[in-house]
Design a protein that fits this description.
Elements (H helix, E strand, L loop, with lengths): L7 H8 L7 E4 L6 H12 L2 E6 L4 H9 L3 H12 L8 E6 L5 H13 L4 E5 L3 H8 L9 E4 L5 H8 L1 H9 L8 H17 L3 H10 L2 H22 L2 H12 L1 H6 L16 H13 L3 E7 L11 E9 L2 H7 L4 H5 L3 H21 L5 E5 L3 E9 L2 E7 L8 H10 L4 E5 L4 E3 L2 E5 L6 H5 L17
Parallel strand pairs: 1-4, 1-5, 2-3, 3-4, 6-8, 10-11, 11-13
Antiparallel strand pairs: 6-7, 8-9, 9-10, 12-13
Amino acid sequence: MELKRDVLDPMIAWKTKRNRKPMLLQGARQVGKTWLLKKLGKQVFDNCVIVNIDREPVIADIFAKTKDPHRIIEQIALIKGQPIQPEKTLLVLDEIQDSDEVLNALKYFNEDAPEYAVACAGSLLGVALRRKGHSFPVGQVDFMTLYPLTFVEFLEATDVRLAGIVRSWKTDDPLPEMLREELQDKFKLYMLVGGMPEAVAGWVETGDIREVDKTLEGILRAYPLDFSKYATAAEVIRINRVWNSMQRQLARDNKRFKYSDVQKGARAREYETSVDWLCKAGLVHKVCNTETVRLPLMAYKDENAFKLYLNDVGLLRRMFNLESTSVMQESRLFMEFKGVLTENYVLMSILCQGYEPLYWTSGNQAEVEFVIEDTGRIIPIEVKSKESIQSKSLSEYRKKFNPELAIRCSQKNLQIRDGLLNLPLPLADRMKDYVMTTPGDIIEYRPDNIVK
């Protein structure tokens, strides 16, 4: 089945972009990078030529022998038996992370042959770029990132009607109760399946959660295989220890990453490069702490205090061994982990909207899950997975910093009151729309505003 991906729109715009550079599509393994590039080639180009650098060494050798992009194009066209024409053909260079020559060739495509549309992908490009460092042509490529499907993209695959409603819902209208219940049911399903394309497609095609679980288990088992393929033997041991500690790290009420949970007596200097490896691979996401709320926000992040989240809620659910009945019936076991699953969901939504969040603490007294910067404002985002929305931490933050807008993601209905926006969890993917709307323009919540 075909899945709708929102990042396709900026990729289409890239084709006609002024001063277009070669595209580098980053993302974790199995998030659908190659599939999406094929779709781009089919949708807006006359033809698409795909080269897998890992599986086609004869083509990799071309890049080792010449730096002339026109000669490279000519030889690839001969080997593939397909024309590669300026502006009409998309040349996809897949799995390029192991080839210094291909990465360096992007510089020459940008400088000497910008008329050719070249797009590259690789499951561990972030790791490769970290390893290769200075050899990478900085400033010579257009970066894009692909994440697992968001909730609204999941709705596109499972319930087009609801997806259309979420995408078009006016920012000043609370959700009718019946619609809110429908979205809550779909949200539970998303927490179960997650956003990995193969898992979503499997659910749509079979409706069998056992097949979904097999897919998720397979992905979780496959990830460590990359450790040994793209890291040294010494690194592999440490990366595996960090990866295997993720369940313990996230199960604690205080989710600040502890090296002692990786190995007794472990210190940062032993494992910080392993944490960085997993982040560069796109398998985990690092959210650093700040106690200072000033612009620019990133200048005040504490790299030594951070939380790690997984790249997908479905994978996290399987990592916790939560069965489908636990999620759908909200059993006691599910409720124990509901908080971290919800936080992980909101984080991925925030990342997909282009934000780089931190989390805020005030000593040991208060903590707000995320803070983001947008158009010269710092906006706190609290996450509540339960019906209760009482929070001393967000109240303390607002008293201390008096933000123009604060956001609470919860199960409660949409409302704005005194600069506090309650955003229903299923609408998290619309957060940027609300951030860009002046709080006074959003209707104040009143019970009679809700359509029954």
